[in-house]
C-alpha cells in the first residue's frame, strides 16, 4: 500500500533531527570549555592581584616577601602560585630574620575554594638579612595544608618527611634536628582568630632526634601529643614574651589531653595541664606513667644530680617517707633513685610492661618527677 504523504514526511524528518544532536552537543562543549577557560583566567588574575595586595600589606608591617620569578599555573582545575628562589625578610623581629627557600608552590583547587596546599622545596637558609645563614634546613618533602579563608583560617597542618636542621658555625655544621617524620596540626575549636581562639594542637614525630636542642633528645624519639591551648587573645602579630604575658593574665594553660613518648627502652604517657606563674615560669602538673623508669632517670642525669646539693631535699623527703630509702638512692643514683620512685609511685601496667605512675610538677619553673628535682626552666616573659 502506498504511504500517505504525512507518513512519508515523518519517516524522512526524524533521522535529520537526530543527526543534528552531535553538532549541538559539540557546540555546547565548545561554549562550556570557552567559559571555563575564561573563568580560570579570571580566577588566576584575581589570585595574582590578591597576592600582590597581601605582599603590599605585609611590607607595611615590616615583613617583606619576594620571588626570583613568580607565575600562576594549574589549569584547568587548580590555581597554583609558584615562587622560585623565595625570599622573606622579617624586620619586625629583633634581630631581623631572613629566610631563603628554593621553591614554594601554593595550590587552591577551584572545586574547594577554602583549601590551600603549599609544597616547599629546600634547602632553607635562616639568618640575619645580608649575613651568612645561621641555620640550614632540608627535607625529602614538606607540605602545609590550610582550611578556611586567609582572614579566618580554621585549621592548619604541616607534614615533613626526613627533616634535617643544622646550626652553621665557623667550624662547620652542627646537627639540631634529624628525623624521619614530623607532623603538626592545629584547629580552632571555638572563637575566631581575632577573638579568643581556643586551639587544639597535635604533634606527631617518628624516629626524630634533636641533639642540638636538649641532651635528653639526643637519641631518636617517637611521640604523639594531643593538647588544647587556652588563653590566647588573638592571632595578631606580636612578640612571644607579649603573647605569653597575655596567656598568663588570662589564666591560660596548655591542657595535655594525651601524650605518648618513647625513646630507647623507656616509654611514657601523660595527662595534665601546665600554665604560667606571675613570673612567667612554668606552673602545673602532669600525671605520667613510665615503663623503664631506671632508663629514663639515667638519661635525666640522676647520677649527677644525686651528688649535688639539689638532691638533698629529695633525699630528705625519701628518708621521711621510708627510712633509709634516701641514702640508698644517693649510693645507687640511677637504679636506686628509680627504685625509690617506683616505691613511691603507683604500680601499673603500660602496654604490657610494668610501669610506675608519678607526678611531673612544675613549680615556678622548677621541674621535679615525684620528689626528685630534674631541672629548671627559664622565664618566658
Explain this structure to me?
Helix content is 28%, strand content 46%. It is built from 7 helices and 20 strands. The protein starts with a helix and ends in a 5-residue tail after the last strand. Residues 303-311 have low confidence and may be disordered.
Q: Which features would summarize this protein structure in a list?
A:
20-stranded antiparallel beta sheet; 7 helices; 381 residues; single chain; elongated; alpha+beta; 46% strand
What's this, in brief?
This protein is of the alpha+beta class. The protein has helices at 5-60, 240-249, 293-299, 302-306, 312-321, 325-331, 333-344, and strands at 63-66, 69-73, 78-90, 97-109, 115-127, 135-138, 141-149, 152-161, 164-169, 172-178, 181-192, 195-208, 221-230, 253-263, 266-276, 282-291, 346-350, 353-363, 366-369, 372-376. The chain has a 20-stranded antiparallel sheet that branches.
Amino acid at each position: 500500500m502506498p504511504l500517505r504523504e504525512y507518513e512519508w514526511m515523518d519517516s524522512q524528518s526524524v533521522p535529520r533531527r537526530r543527526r543534528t544532536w552531535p553538532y549541538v552537543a559539540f557546540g555546547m562543549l565548545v561554549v562550556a570549555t570557552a567559559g571555563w577557560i575564561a573563568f580560570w583566567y579570571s580566577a588566576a588574575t584575581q589570585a595574582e592581584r590578591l597576592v600582590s595586595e597581601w605582599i603590599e600589606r605585609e611590607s607595611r608591617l615590616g615583613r617583606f616577601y619576594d620571588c626570583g620569578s613568580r607565575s600562576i599555573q594549574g589549569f584547568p582545575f587548580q590555581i597554583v602560585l609558584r615562587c622560585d628562589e623565595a625570599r622573606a625578610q622579617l624586620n619586625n623581629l629583633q634581630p631581623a630574620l631572613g629566610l631563603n627557600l628554593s621553591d614554594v608552590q601554593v595550590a587552591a583547587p577551584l572545586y574547594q575554594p577554602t583549601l590551600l596546599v603549599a609544597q616547599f622545596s629546600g634547602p632553607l637558609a635562616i639568618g640575619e638579612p645580608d649575613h651568612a645563614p645561621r641555620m640550614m634546613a632540608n627535607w625529602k618533602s614538606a607540605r602545609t595544608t590550610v582550611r578556611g579563608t586567609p582572614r579566618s583560617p580554621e585549621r592548619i597542618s604541616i607534614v615533613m618527611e626526613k627533616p634535617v636542621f643544622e646550626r652553621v658555625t665557623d667550624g662547620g655544621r652542627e646537627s639540631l634536628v634529624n628525623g624521619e617524620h614530623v607532623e603538626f596540626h592545629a584547629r580552632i575549636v571555638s572563637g575566631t582568630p581575632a577573638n579568643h581562639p581556643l586551639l587544639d594542637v597535635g604533634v606527631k614525630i617518628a624516629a626524630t632526634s634533636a641533639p642540638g636542642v636538649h641532651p635528653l633528645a639526643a637519641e631518636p624519639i617517637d611521640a604523639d601529643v594531643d593538647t588544647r591551648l587556652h588563653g590566647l587573645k588573638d592571632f595578631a602579630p606580636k612578640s612571644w614574651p607579649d603573647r605569653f604575658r597575655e596567656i598568663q593574665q588570662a589564666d591560660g594553660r596548655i591542657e595535655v589531653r594525651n601524650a605518648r613518648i618513647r625513646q630507647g627502652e623507656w616509654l611514657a604517657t601523660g595527662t595534665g595541664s601546665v600554665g604560667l606563674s606571675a613570673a612567667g615560669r612554668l606552673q602545673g602538673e602532669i600525671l605520667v606513667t613510665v615503663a623503664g623508669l631506671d632508663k629514663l632517670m639515667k638519661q635525666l642525669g640522676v647520677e649527677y644530680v644525686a651528688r649535688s646539693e639539689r638532691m638533698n631535699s629529695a633525699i630528705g623527703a625519701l628518708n621521711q617517707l621510708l627510712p633509709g630509702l634516701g641514702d640508698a638512692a644517693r649510693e645507687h643514683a640511677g637504679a636506686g633513685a628509680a627504685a625509690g620512685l617506683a616505691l613511691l609511685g603507683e604500680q601499673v601496667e603500660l602496654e604490657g610492661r610494668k610501669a610506675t605512675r608519678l607526678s611531673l610538677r612544675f613549680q615556678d619553673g622548677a621541674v621535679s618527677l615525684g620528689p626528685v628535682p630534674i631541672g629548671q626552666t627559664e622565664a618566658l616573659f
